[in-house]
Amino acid sequence: MPRIRSFYRAGGGYALPLIVDLLLIVVFAIIGRMSHSEGVSLAGIVTTGWPFVLGLLAAWVLVTLFRWRPWRPFPAGVFVWVVTVGGGMLLRLAIGDTAEVAFVIVASIVLGAFLLLPRLLLDTGRETRPRVNASAGVR
Fold first, then answer.
1. Do residues 26 and 42 lie in contact, with contact meaning Cβ atoms separated by under 8 Å?
2. CA 25, CA 112: separation in Å to the nearest integer?
3. Percent share of the chain, pLDDT over 90
4. Could you tell me which residue, 34 or 56, shows the higher pLDDT?
5. Domain coordinates of the chain in residue numbers?
6. Which among 58, 29, 59, 57 is positioned nearest to 45, based on CA atoms?
7. If 0-12 CB within 10 Å is exposed, 13-18 middle and 19+ buried, where does residue 50 land?
8. What's the predicted TM-score (pTM) here?
């Protein structure tokens, strides 16, 4: 598991967590379309997922501006989750789509799991620092 953790944070840790988050938004859109017996086409996935992708990208811009480590569950992971759901719902409402209470609850739970569990399971909240033996430098 150390290889996965280090790969997830490689190069400052911005590219891979963003790609994982985007892929999980696509999975969320596919699951949503399948659960409502809607066609799973590229156009359908884009139609369902774009508000949440834009919410996610807005969250990532802010996480970057705040200089938070995006792989950490808190504060970055929680912030990305809340802004993704909130932004996605607001964009859906702005274009005349619905945001029923049941959908908001389900989307919040699913996106919470999708956006927080990778960060938690990969133990990415801990910083990896080399351990220094205190007695090694003292004589």
1. no
2. 11
3. 50
4. 56
5. 2-121
6. 29
7. middle
8. 0.78
